[in-house]
Design goal:
heterodimer, A: alpha/beta, Rossmann fold, five-stranded parallel sheet, four-stranded parallel sheet, globular, B: mainly alpha, ABC transporter involved in vitamin B12 uptake, BtuC, 2 domains, two-stranded antiparallel sheet
């Protein structure tokens, strides 16, 4: 059986010694194998998210393998590290589109790394499934860009409704990133439409460790609710330090803080924080219970939102590849037209016309005695 | 406001701690040590491991961190730096970059990239000062920073070993004649600096309470800025610089918001350099040796290798697959960016660590001209290049009188300020969202989107840059620049104004960097602040040093090696970046003068 990528590799090897060649040296894939490319931060500053991705994706692959593969064919993920750096994600995009055995691409982690690579995927007609890319502009980059990340506008409406139940004077602090900026802008609109007064809206750099100054500003505006658009690391620090400056307000944050580390890092300072989650490990639905149990047994930590999304991404990709007759364009059409796409997070769902998921359910959790528990409103 | 200043002083003392090791190495070895940031992170993570996993008492853990990092410092000096004792100073600088890459990745592999809790053992009882609650540990930090600074300063001035360290740094030959073991002194200096970084990392990490390997970047940058503000090389200055920077950062964040942090930090550093530059008379600047120290013996340009490179550039699109072409485009873009530095560094003897700023201006200017004014790429690219050049001249002229290292640090601050401004000037640049979905350039009614077209465009831009730089180098202007590089005093004596010529070199170099930026925007069809971190300045600098100062072919070969290696090492997976660092270290070790040299 002929390796589909061999001639390609030989051509590259013969062509130039000066650039990286033989991207899948060691790959033992036959024509039978279903392959997906994963472009993600497996080293660099975002490496921790890459670690979680790989855990969840490996779990999905081993489950599929144990169940006999994809219609009897083995499944292989080709992980390529980009450090979520556009300089590398573009090159990896080319590597994936050149390899005819790759049917779908998953990632990259940051919207910036994904969007720089979008032209390459779009032109080659390979699905770029940026399952964490919440920047609305990402799926507008072409017909092959899909995302299951909640659009920031929809997320903002949910958060604003929850926060409005806790008070009418809101202070917003957000990461000055693509996500934080677009999400908080949407939030301010949504909150105002509910008659809430946004008394302070401030941004901070993602790598910030010291928030005393901006928290002092927020306190001066006398809010009764503080809304943090933060990941769990900066979210935990924000909450610890808000206690130092005496900012006494209800705290509402986002699903990105849904990680046991948020509680570990924040200690008792994060008690009482509420957040809407797309995924909750205590969810009684059988699919989620099974996922959480196997994940915990294998990795000795609780899966978070990124783990659940990554796990789903593999299964969605398998569904799309199968439905699409194992062709690239077939997979795209399956995603675009499918009405019952499998997902443990969302149950069967469909993509909207903007190739993004529309979430209608709303679930909240609260940090209570060092654990996340369902929250039913104030 | 009192509260803001108080918390600023506490933050500032963590920056001061981080700055101490950086300043120490600057003072005694005259080197900007790029491994200090990763060493801070290593100290913090080791501190976490010792206290949280091994349950050692805090003080004992701190002592272990101090010893372990000191040993690591000695090992780094012995293995990576000492073999370069007779190499140009820049090779040593580059070796610290490589060591930093290795250490950074090793820390991630050893401790995993997760965020951890680094707890302090002191009573939690918080003191209320104004509206601010601080713990006993927080209030102790400034005192600890001051004590460490005093102790280190006392060691360097009042002990015979300390004096020997300084003597070895000032004049190694004379020190050797006085019977001082210069190698040992150098080892002790690096051990001390590494140990200071380890202690600083653990203490600062304890103050933040959360530590992760990626604090190398933020804490290292803060420490570097504080050291620069405090006047590079002075331990007292590092403490004062750290405290001042902490207060300014907090006041700045209170007034302009948290996202303005980097603008405040680097604009402050730049301001300090501007003031220093006004004080520096042109005589003094001229007398200061250039960054290069003794010029390395130039090796003859390898004409045959140059021919091979040209053939490769022509042959790649004919014989290679799209993946190689895509890597080739990246190489061409970064080679073009490196050309801008070739012009500045190799020709007039001034290093720049801020090229990313002009690269970013070029990318944004062409994106904005295309998106907002509807210009075509062919009009926008030259305009963007011109805008970069003009802004480069404006940014550099106030500091152009500074010499060698100081100018290099000032350019670092310029690059960081430009990128921070791009993030903050929302109404012009769209802030963190960037500018997306640009239209691809088209030629003869054909859109340039395929890997081959992109490669040809990037290679053409490189060719234009190459001809431009070559032409300048062989012109009378190039001769003047070289006169400044080789002997600033003689050049000034013959009526050449070094500052004006340096500014001109930066302006023309900025134009080339801007061209590279607009080509980047035309390939990604998207620009965002994330794309332009300071690593890119370091990459450009690395390419130029490795390729050979001032050699245009060196820029191409250096880019091919440095952009190509991380791709070539992909089969190594988790160890890819580690291997890249090691490869860089070996290249510096065995080719410290670069691949090509330029006379």
């Amino acid at each position: 059986m002929r390796n589909p990528s061999r001639s390609h590799v030989l051509r590259m090897l013969g062509g130039a010694a000066l650039a990286g060649c033989a991207p899948h040296a060691g790959g033992s894939a036959g024509t039978d194998t279903i392959r997906f490319g994963v472009s993600g931060p497996f080293s660099g500053d975002d490496a921790n998210y890459g670690r979680v991705w790989r855990n969840a994706m490996d779990l999905a692959v081993s489950e599929i393998t144990r169940a006999g593969g994809v219609r009897g064919r083995p499944l292989e993920l080709v992980y390529e590290d980009t450090q979520a750096d556009p300089r590398q994600s573009v090159v990896i995009a080319q590597q994936f589109v050149d390899d005819p055995s790759i049917l779908i691409e998953l990632g990259d982690f940051s919207s910036a790394a994904s969007m720089a690579a979008s032209p390459v995927y779009e032109r080659a007609g390979l699905v770029q499934f940026g399952f964490t890319n919440s920047d609305p502009a990402f799926t507008l980059g072409g017909d092959y860009m899909f995302s299951t990340a909640t659009s920031v506008r929809q997320d903002a409406a949910i958060i604003a409704r929850g926060a409005a139940r806790l008070g009418r004077r809101h202070a917003v602090l957000f990461q000055d990133t693509v996500w934080g900026k677009s999400a908080s802008t949407a939030y301010v609109e949504a909150a105002r439409s509910l008659g809430v007064e946004v008394v302070s809206a401030q941004s901070y750099l993602a790598e910030t460790k010291d928030f005393h100054a901006i928290l002092g500003n927020a306190r001066a505006a006398r809010p009764d609710v503080a809304v943090y658009y933060a990941y769990y690391t900066d979210g935990a620090l924000l909450m610890r330090q808000s206690r130092d400056v005496g900012l006494d307000a209800h705290v509402v944050t986002t699903g990105a803080c849904y990680n046991q580390q948020f509680v570990t890092l924040g200690g008792d300072a994060v008690e009482g924080a509420v957040l809407p989650v797309e995924f909750f490990a205590g969810d009684p639905r059988p699919a989620i219970r099974t996922f959480v149990q196997t994940y915990e047994a294998r990795y000795h930590e609780q899966p978070d939102l990124f783990a659940a999304f990554a796990y789903d991404a593999v299964n969605i990709a398998v569904w799309a590849a199968t439905r699409g007759g194992f062709t690239r364009s077939g997979a795209r059409d399956a995603l675009a037209r499918g009405t019952h796409i499998p997902s443990i997070v969302d149950g069967p769902f469909r993509f909207g016309s903007d190739r993004r998921i529309e979430r209608t359910t709303e679930r909240w959790v609260v940090v209570k005695n060092g654990r996340f528990a369902l929250w039913n409103g104030a | 406001m009192g509260e803001t200043i108080l918390s600023g002083l506490i933050t500032g003392s963590t920056l001061a701690l981080a700055a101490l090791g950086i300043s120490l190495i600057f003072g005694v070895a005259d080197i900007a040590n790029f491994a200090q940031g990763p060493m801070l992170a290593f100290g913090a993570m080791l501190g976490w491991w010792l206290t949280a996993v091994l349950h050692l008492p805090y003080a004992l853990a701190l002592a272990c961190v101090a010893v372990a990092t000191a040993l690591l410092g000695i090992a780094i000096e012995r293995i990576a730096l000492r073999p370069l004792a007779n190499a140009p100073r820049l090779a040593v600088l580059l070796a610290t970059v490589a060591v930093g890459i290795v250490l950074d990745r090793a820390t991630q592999l050893i401790f995993s990239p997760e965020t951890r809790v680094l707890d302090d053992p002191f009573p939690r009882a918080t003191l209320a000062i104004g509206g601010l609650h601080v713990s006993a540990f927080d209030t102790a930090i400034p005192a600890i920073a001051a004590a460490i600074a005093l102790l280190s300063a006392w060691f360097l001035t009042n002990t015979s070993t300390g004096r020997a360290i300084r003597a070895s740094a000032q004049d190694p030959d004379a020190a050797r004649q006085m019977g001082i073991d210069v190698g040992t002194m150098q080892s002790i200096a690096f051990a001390l600096a590494a140990s200071l970084a380890g202690i600083a990392g653990m203490l600062a990490g304890t103050y933040y309470r959360n530590v992760e390997p990626s604090i190398a970047t933020s804490l290292g940058m803060g420490g570097f800025a504080a050291a620069a503000l405090g006047g590079l090389g002075s331990l007292g200055g590092a403490v004062v610089g750290g405290l001042a920077l902490g207060v300014l950062q907090n006041v700045g964040a209170t007034l302009f918001g948290g996202a303005a942090l980097q603008v405040v930090t680097f604009a402050t550093v730049l301001g300090a350099f501007w003031l220093r530059s006004r004080r520096a008379s042109s005589d003094r600047a001229a007398n200061e040796s250039t960054f290069f120290g003794l010029p390395a013996l130039p090796a003859p340009p390898r004409r045959s290798l140059a021919i091979v490179l040209v053939l490769a550039a022509v042959g790649v699109p004919l014989f290679c697959g799209p993946y190689v072409l895509r890597v080739g485009s990246e190489i061409a873009i970064y080679a073009t960016l490196a050309l801008s530095l070739t012009l500045v560094a190799g020709t007039c003897g001034t290093i720049s660590l801020g090229q990313v700023g002009f690269f970013a201006i070029g990318a944004y200017a062409s994106a904005l001209l295309e998106k907002d004014l509807g210009w075509t790429f062919w009009c926008a690219a030259p305009a963007a290049s011109a805008i970069s050049g003009v802004l480069a001249a404006i940014a550099i002229s106030p500091v152009a009188r500074l010499g060698g290292q100081e100018l290099a640090i000032a350019t670092f601050a310029i690059g960081a300020t430009i990128v921070a401004l791009i993030l903050n000037l929302d109404s012009l640049t769209n802030g963190p969202l960037g500018i997306s979905n640009l239209a691809p350039p088209s030629a003869f009614g054909h859109a340039i989107v395929s890997a081959r077209d992109d490669f040809l465009l990037a290679a053409s831009a490189f060719a234009i840059g190459l001809l431009f730089v070559r032409r300048l180098q062989s012109s009378p202007l190039g001769l003047t620049w070289r006169a400044i590089r080789d002997d600033p005093v003689a050049a000034a004596a013959s009526g050449i104004a070094p500052a004006a010529y340096k500014t001109l070199a930066f302006a023309l170099g900025g134009g080339v960097a801007g061209l590279a930026g607009s080509v980047l925007a035309s390939q990604y069809l998207y620009v965002s602040p994330d794309m332009f971190d300071t690593d890119i300045s370091v990459l450009a600098f690395t390419i130029v040093v490795l390729g050979g100062m001032g050699s245009v072919w060196g820029a191409l070969l250096g880019a091919a090696v440095l952009v190509g290696i991380p791709e070539l090492f992909r089969p190594l997976h988790d160890y890819r970046i580690l291997a890249y660092g090691v490869a860089l270290l070996l290249l510096v070790r065995f080719r410290p003068q670069g691949f090509f040299a330029y006379r």
